[in-house]
Design a protein that fits this description.
Strand content of chain A: 25-35%
Structural class of chain A: alpha/beta
Helix content of chain B: 25-40%
Number of domains of chain B: 1
Shape of chain A: elongated
Structural class of chain B: alpha/beta
CATH class of chain B: Alpha Beta
Shape of chain B: globular
Number of strands of chain A: 15
CATH superfamily of the largest domain in chain A: HUPs
Number of helices of chain A: 7
Order of helices and strands of chain A: EHEEHEHEEEEEEEHEHEHEEH
CATH superfamily of chain B: HUPs
CATH class of the largest domain in chain A: Alpha Beta
Strand order of the largest sheet of chain A: 7-6-5-8-4-1-2-3-9
Number of strands of chain B: 14
CATH topology of chain B: Rossmann fold
Number of helices of chain B: 6
Largest sheet of chain A: 9 strands, mixed
Largest sheet of chain B: 10 strands, mixed
Distance between the termini of chain A: 65 Å
CATH architecture of chain B: 3-Layer(aba) Sandwich
Oligomer: heterodimer
Helix content of chain A: 10-25%
């Protein structure tokens, strides 16, 4: 039996986990929130913390446990592995059931895949975007369990970011990464965005540096861009970043022709953004004038 | 308040790696970026609480003298760490359960331990979370800020730019994704001085064999067919303008 723990803070990924679980065998899905269209056996609990996870793990003795590579799953899965000592695989993009589990994990910043064979029971933290969430939707058979264990971690406040622009809704996003080199070069990206009637955004290292506000972050921890064009300038394309890129057309500029960002790009340009941008901007200015 | 921070080294992806079926061969190692954030946050937390900060490097035996580990510890010293330790794992393992069990005894007396939420070479667990399970400590990952009001208040990313504030019981392990301030720059002169002055206690530990995960092969993901433009900058700019025109952007 496969035990799926729904993602508390990012609900949609739960359906992807269910889609995967259906391929692996019998399954039960544990959720806290009011999910009313999960296909299969659903266990609803008041709280979803590590004590509840441990209790349900002990009760059902699953051969495999699925968590999402998301805020809640990334806390609960390793805690369970630490307590029980059972094997744990992260960044899973493919999983098959047999005498042992066969898992594929995407690692080294998206540059390497590793095929693994894993003993049962085991824990898997699954990346989003690899299983169709619609396959996880259906009619639930709900069982409510009264498992009200207090946790050593208590949510006291949720803070939403102040937004000047919603990059998730912009049609054209010009996004900068570490390859931009220096804060002053962000002005070039802003100018390009202006010339293309777009907005400027960035990957995590740029936000960490404080060069752009948090509201401009693209990726797992930031926003998902869904517009017409995403222009990635000097962004390597780590898994956490590309999970947030769902634009119809991706154009990537990077000096490393093996950069993972090229795997999601329609057009890739092998170049130093800081050499390319001034020339490109000049040409666009000429056209505009 | 006794604060700990863990620093590790990982393959430098900028310098490149060689992907062999049985192993990944790095050309160079660098301090793990998320651990650099954990260290920075630990320094901030020391400043807020007036606590003591002990920084612990964790490294495989074959890399015990690698300059990246020396650099990671020297950076910690230069930023204000009160003491430094280096835990040397007697054998290399990708399995974070094994690392956590090997080092657990050395993390029993802290109030708060900060560690990068993950390292780029991980595929078998997150060290901080597993260590918390082994020790019975509280755990929060995705941490972007830590405060103290007599108790621990932790800010955690919840996705989409949303942050949750959590009250966390101590002792706790925090998986830091990003420090609340940009990482402070340490000039080369100060770093060299730190390398000369710092004293590092070395501890060798045995890594248990827990089994259960077998690597079948490492390989490169397939490269989808894309239009790849290469050449001089003038030429590339012209081609990009054509691409923009085809998308009705100009």
């Amino acid at each position: 039996m496969i035990l799926v723990f729904g993602e508390e803070f990012e609900r949609d990924v739960t359906y992807e986990l269910v889609a995967l679980a259906k391929r692996l065998g019998d399954y039960k899905v544990v959720v806290r929130e009011d999910f009313d269209d999960i296909d299969g056996d659903v266990i609803r609990v008041e709280r979803l913390n590590w004590k509840v996870v441990k209790e349900l793990h002990d009760r059902f003795k699953p051969e495999g446990v699925l968590f999402a590579n998301a805020p809640s799953g990334m806390d609960l899965a390793p805690k369970l592995a630490g307590i029980t000592g059972i094997p744990m695989v992260t960044n899973v993009i493919k999983l098959e059931n047999g005498d042992r589990f066969k898992a594929t994990s995407l690692t080294y910043g998206g540059k390497v895949l590793v095929d693994l064979e894993v003993d049962k029971p085991s824990i898997f933290v699954v990346n989003r975007g690899y299983y169709d969430p619609n396959e996880g939707r259906g009619t639930p058979k709900v069982e409510k369990l009264d498992l009200d264990f207090e946790d050593d971690v208590e949510l006291i406040e949720v803070v939403k970011p102040e937004e000047d622009v919603d990059i998730s809704k912009a049609e054209v996003v010009v996004s900068v990464g570490r390859g931009i080199g220096d804060e002053s070069n962000i002005e070039l990206a802003k100018e390009l965005a202006e010339l293309l009637n777009g907005v400027v955004a960035g990957s995590r290292p740029i936000i960490d540096q404080g060069w752009l506000p948090k509201s401009r972050q693209v990726g797992r921890s930031g926003k998902t861009v869904t517009g017409k064009v995403y222009i990635a300038l000097g962004i390597s394309g780590a898994t956490e970043h590309v999970e947030g890129v769902k634009a119809k057309n991706v154009i990537a500029v990077n000096t490393d022709r093996d950069a993972p960002i090229f795997r999601i790009a329609k057009v890739g340009v092998v170049a130093d953004v800081n050499e390319l941008l001034p020339v490109l901007i000049e040409k666009l200015r000429e056209i505009k004038s | 308040m006794r604060i700990g921070a863990i620093v590790r080294i990982v393959p430098d992806l900028v310098m490149g790696i060689e992907i062999e079926e049985s192993e990944i061969v790095p050309f160079k190692y660098v301090p793990n970026e998320r651990d650099e954030h954990a260290l920075e946050e630990a320094v901030v937390f020391k400043e807020k609480t007036g606590g003591t900060l002990e920084v612990v490097g964790i490294v495989d035996d074959e890399l015990r003298d690698d300059e990246a580990m020396e650099e990671a510890l020297a950076l910690a010293y230069a930023k204000g760490a009160d003491s430094l330790k280096k835990i040397v794992l007697n054998r290399r393992t990708f399995d974070r359960r094994e690392v956590a069990r090997a080092i657990a005894d050395h993390f029993k007396d802290y109030d708060v331990v900060m560690v990068g939420i993950q390292s780029i070479d991980s595929f078998a667990g997150y060290l901080g979370g597993i260590l918390s399970g082994v020790l019975g400590y509280s755990y929060v990952g995705g941490v972007v800020g830590v405060d103290y009001d007599g108790g621990l208040i932790v800010q955690k990313e919840l996705g989409g730019g949303v942050v949750g504030k959590f009250r966390v019981k101590t002792p706790a392990i925090l998986g830091v994704v990003s420090a609340e301030r940009p990482i402070t720059f340490v000039p080369l002169v100060k770093l060299r001085q730190a390398m000369k002055e710092m004293k590092v206690e070395e501890i060798e530990v045995e890594v248990p064999d827990m089994g259960g995960i077998e690597v079948v092969r490492f390989y490169e993901p397939e490269k989808p067919e894309i239009t790849l433009l290469e050449g001089d900058v003038e030429e590339l700019a012209d081609k990009l303008v054509e691409v923009f025109k085809s998308l009705s952007l100009v």
